[in-house]
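Protocol step 4 of 6: structure prediction from sequence.
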Amino acid sequence: MPEIRSPENRAARWRPFGSRLLVVAILTGLLSLPILFGGAIAAGDGGDQETAAASLFRPSADAWPVFRGNLLGTGVAGTTLPDEPKLLWTFDTESEIEGTAAIVGGVVYFGDYEGRVYALTLAEGRELWRFDAGTPIKAPVSVFDDVVYVGDEYGYVYALDAGSGEQKWKFETLGEIFAGVSLHEDRLLVGSYDNSLYCLDRTSGEKVWQVETDGYVHGTPAVADGLTTVSGCDGFMWLIDIETGETIHKIDLRGQAASSPAVVGDMAYVATYENEVLGIDLAKRQVAWAYEHEIRKFPFYASAAADDEIVVIGGRDKIVHALDPATGERKWEWNSGARLDSSPVIVGDRVFLGSKRGPVLALDKATGEPVWEFDTGSAIMASPAVASERLVIGSLDRILYCFG
């Protein structure tokens, strides 16, 4: 990993949503992730006046369009699941699945190691189409307004028609892409392992600007009121103006970060390769609290799920950690017996995630006690996608599973 450098001390005041706010995105040591936004969107009421753009900032009952479910990266589902989810269908790709699926309009979209992008019916797992990029796809899929966006290991970003799978355009970067694609008006944002965050024209795929960081950009960028954020193995959270590509501010993360932040109100929750989970005060642009297990010192790769009650994340220490959002104090922990790279999803009063040991499992949100498990028999790195009372997750055993 690149050497971590001192942050630039730029004065930049936090302004609430409706001014030029940006919230967070974080990326990883061998990764990096951009993500985002602030309190007014997260706390706002739903209703007829809600715009399509604003809905991307809230959990949706019938859609999971981007990594972590919404542009705030909270990992909170807007639907429910049965007390005892049943396996409804499986789909065998004959290739490993690492990236997280998207669910939009009753269709599941995902990629595999062979470089294929699939569209399946959510109801029965019937294949609608497939697109062959020809190189491994480990990035999460994003779907906005009937267009599927995904990157591959050769550094290409593809735009595909959601109905037919027909390629609309592709854009080449100079490094592998593990990041998902985010949207702001007529522009797309995506990170690459060439240490850059790209802004692309949504219609043509042409580059609008490129910001070079000091580390790989692995994660899914976030956007709010004209700003986006990205962080990487340089150990900073970057705030970038989408219109100009200008860096507005950088926040010191105290270490390289592999996870994407979850943003709730004025707080962002991120985990690092320095074995910490951080609560970042976005108003003050500083770390408010840091959690580190007193015994097990292992890095975090997964992203946290967060709401007003809890911050929950699995680590390479094999433990699921549940923290108080205000203080970072531990509420509970549960040892899974295997490394956890799958990012959890909060579904009502339960937390769902996958394990390197093989099972898809659910924990009680209040106590951490296991309440449900399905053993796939193979390691899981993908994160759950949850919509329309269904949970979809891929495994390294080449199977996409659907529960409901």
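Step 5 (inspection) to follow. The mean pLDDT is 85.
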